[in-house]
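In response to a reviewer's request, we include the raw inputs and outputs for one of the modeled complexes. The two entities were modeled together in a single run.
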Amino acid sequence: MSDLASVRPRRHAQAGFCVLIVDDDPDMAELLGRMLSQQGMQAQVATNGAAALEMIAASPPDLVLLDVQMPGPNGFDICRQLKSQEATALLPVVLVTALEDQDSRVLGIEAGADDFLSKPVRREELIARVKTLRRLHETRKELEGRRLAAEVQRKEEIRKAFARYISPRLAERVLRESRGSEEVFRNLSNRAAVVALFADLRGFTRLSETVPVSSIVPMLNEFFTELTAAAHDNEGTVFSMAGDSLLVGFNVPVPQPDATARAVATGRAMVQRFAPVAARWQAEHGLSTGIGVGIEAGEVVVGNVGAPSFMSYTIIGDPVNVAARLMQRAEPNEILIGPSASLSLHGMLGGAMPLDRRFVKLKGKAEQVEVVTLRVAPA
Amino acid sequence: MSQQKITVIVAKDLEDLIPTFMANRNKELGTLSVALGAGDMEQLRQLGHRMKGVGNSYGFEQISVLGKQIEDRAKIKDLTGLQTLITEYNDYLARVSIVYE
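The model returned the following structure tokens for the whole complex.
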């Protein structure tokens, strides 16, 4: 009886809204396709359930007209399957059933059908039902599009805000791993174990006295550019720049099990990245400059601190103070690592490298603290 | 059996579909007879169900009426009633005259 292949696409000139007709009766499929195409819709035909599922998976239509009684999976089976899958749950499904068959309608509702069309089919009823669902579907798609656009915009705003503090790579990771911005920001005010790194420019005082005032800011920018790049390369978070010093945190705002290693690598990279700049300044201005670095680990308070009109995302606590004091004690191109940070340093280096340990007196500390000194060759 | 024509009005824009539709109905008639001969009630029920759905969708109300009766008779395995209905269907297809409007 049927001369139709199991799957027969029928494309029409005014393609736009695409309806998949699933019916094993070729005459019925032909009739429905004709009525829909006259309304400027695109009609495709599947003559059995398996073919319909394949077509939907390959290219989802905008609406499915689904006959109930078919060989193989029937209309209820297909409807249930479509509604149970995330990708097709919102695809409108109209079950085509005999008018008097109330049981089928109940089963159809249970299977998740969006609407019913009575057989024999009345043209006016078909068009009215499809048009109604088309409007609903298009409204739903528009709302979904707006929601997605808003989500993209919100993430972009968060990314831009974060990029001021942390590396672009880390910002992407934060956004990817957090369920929403609320979670990200909630985690921005808490106590956390961090590794703090302070770095400053040695010879800055003489430099500021020697070079023209108009050159100071560009030179500082050059200095901070190299140090910030070193921090971001190691996924550190830049918390503050003041004068000629920079505070970088690790293990915040996202966990970094190798935070101490990242801090040490950052200190080394800062010295090495700044070396060509220092050499040029030496040549141009006859000034010797270098970088001093202090690193310490411990628990701090992380959060947005300040007034409503001016806030700063920062870390506050003893490890930060110790890192600052160590930085002050460090010689040019030297990294001083505090007692807490150096605990993990030994394991990190596998005990293979003898560490240069010494006791130093730090301002604000009653007793001397044992620190590890790392000299970094600028070359 | 009357030889009087039965006029059916079909929408003009479906005219090109009708030759295939009618050819399929005549094939269907043959299939119904074969199924009855084989006592295949399930096939008769399915064919009746299909006739019920498609007949009046094209404007052939009597095909839908006969289809429903065939579906119902097949469910209760009424061979005599089915034979009568298939004969009626044969008679209807022989007499139907289509007007396009």
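As requested, we also summarize the result in words. Residues 1-15 of chain A have pLDDT under 50 and may be disordered. The first helix of chain A runs from residue 26 to 37.
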